Amino acid sequence: MTMQGVAPSALAFTPPKRNSLTHIPGDEGWPIIGKTLDVLADPKGHIEQMAAKYGLVYRSHIFGETSLSLLGPEANELVLFDQAKLFSSAHGWGRILGLLFPRGLMLLDFEEHRLHRRALSVAFKSGPMKSYLATLDTGIAARVQQWKGRPGPMLFYPAMKQLTLDLAATSFLGADIGPEVDEITRAFVDMVAASISVIRSPLPGTKMARGVRGRKRIVAYFSEQIPVRRAKGGEDLFSQLCRATHEDGALLSTQDIVDHMSFLMMAAHDTLTSSLTSFVGALATHPQWQTRLREEIAALNIAANEPTTFDNLEAMPLTEMAFKEAMRLKPPVPSIPRRAIRDFNFKGYAVPAGTMVGVNPVFTHHMPEIWPDPDSFDPMRFTDEAQRGRHRFAWVPFGGGAHMCLGLHFAYMQAKCFMRHFLQNLSVSIEPGYKPEWQMWPIPKPRDGLRVTLVPV
Question: Domains in the chain and their CATH numbers?
Answer without folding.
Answer: 8-456 (1.10.630.10)
